[in-house]
């Protein structure tokens, strides 16, 4: 597999020269970062070029890097094995997992949205039709908008849901809760009544944790 990744890395470097942000091989996995502008051209090239042929997209997910590397001074920074810092310049990204059956190799592609307030990327549903529901999920959970999507609606939350629950700033208890009202004989929404509390694991609790003094 290492030899295959080496060949793939050489092909990507040659074919996508000037159209990629970075290409990195770590822990036996190859990650390609491409800019949002022109991403559809790159994705189509990844699918159709005979030396690549990533005919399958096996997964797609949104990412929120707002708290990533929060233990370092610069937001979005992390350290590679050689201690060289790497900075994620934007908050949101979409990660695509691609598979070439013919060449028996996999590739991770990351595309950052260049507006933290309104994250927008092009839809790849016309390139890999299976992206339809994956993009709806990322839209629902992260609020990432995919232009050109044929039917961009929430997928996992209901129609009246407010916010995007996988964003790092979304409260764990949510904003509202749903219950059945016997007087109105229907389901209603109301402000959440769960009191926030911190659960401390038993192994790190103080000796008299929770006891009334």
Structure write-up:
The protein is an alpha+beta fold and 213 residues long. The protein has one domain: Beta Polymerase, domain 2. It has helices at residues 2-15, 39-48, 131-142, and strands at residues 22-26, 29-34, 56-64, 77-79, 85-87, 92-100, 105-112, 120-122, 145-147, 176-181, 186-191. It is elongated, with a radius of gyration of 22 Å. The N and C termini lie far apart (62 Å). Mean pLDDT is 84; it is low at 71-85.
Structural topology:
Elements: H1 2-15, E1 22-26, E2 29-34, H2 39-48, E3 56-64, E4 77-79, E5 85-87, E6 92-100, E7 105-112, E8 120-122, H3 131-142, E9 145-147, E10 176-181, E11 186-191
Parallel strand pairs: 2-7, 8-9
Antiparallel strand pairs: 1-2, 3-6, 4-5, 6-7, 10-11
| Straight-line distance between termini | 62 Å
Largest sheet: 5 strands, mixed
Beta-strand residue fraction: 25-35%
Read across the widest sheet, the strand sequence of neighbours is 1-2-7-6-3
The appropriate CATH architecture is: 2-Layer Sandwich
CATH domain topology: Beta Polymerase, domain 2
Overall SS class: alpha+beta
Query: Helicity level, as a percent range?
Result: 10-25%
Number of strands: 11
The total of helices stands at 3
The coarse silhouette is elongated
Q: At the fourth CATH level, what is the homologous superfamily? A: NADH:ubiquinone oxidoreductase Nqo5 subunit
CATH class descriptor name: Alpha Beta
Question: What count of domains describes the coordinates?
Answer: 1
H/E topology pattern: HEEHEEEEEEHEEE
Low-confidence stretches: 71-85
Rg to the nearest angstrom? 22 Å
């Amino acid at each position: 597999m290492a030899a295959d990744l080496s060949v793939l890395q050489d092909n990507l470097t040659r074919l996508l020269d000037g159209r990629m942000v970075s290409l990195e091989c770590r822990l036996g996995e190859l990650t390609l970062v491409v800019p949002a502008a022109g991403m559809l051209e790159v994705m189509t090239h990844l699918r159709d070029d005979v030396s690549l042929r990533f005919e399958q997209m096996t997964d797609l997910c949104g990412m929120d890097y707002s708290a990533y590397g929060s233990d370092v001074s610069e937001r979005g920074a992390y350290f590679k094995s050689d201690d060289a810092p790497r900075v994620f310049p934007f908050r949101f990204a979409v990660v695509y997992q691609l598979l070439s059956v013919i060449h028996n190799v996999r590739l991770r592609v990351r595309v950052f949205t260049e507006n933290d307030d309104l994250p927008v990327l092009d839809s790849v549903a016309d390139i890999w039709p299976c992206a339809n529901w994956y993009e709806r999920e990322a839209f629902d959970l992260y609020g990432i908008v995919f232009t050109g999507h044929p039917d961009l609606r929430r997928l996992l939350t209901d129609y009246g849901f407010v916010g995007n629950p996988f964003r790092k700033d979304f409260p764990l208890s949510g904003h509202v809760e749903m219950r059945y009202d016997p007087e109105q004989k229907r389901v209603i929404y109301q402000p959440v009544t769960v009191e926030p509390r911190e659960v401390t694991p038993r192994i790190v609790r103080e000796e008299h944790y929770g006891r009334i003094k």
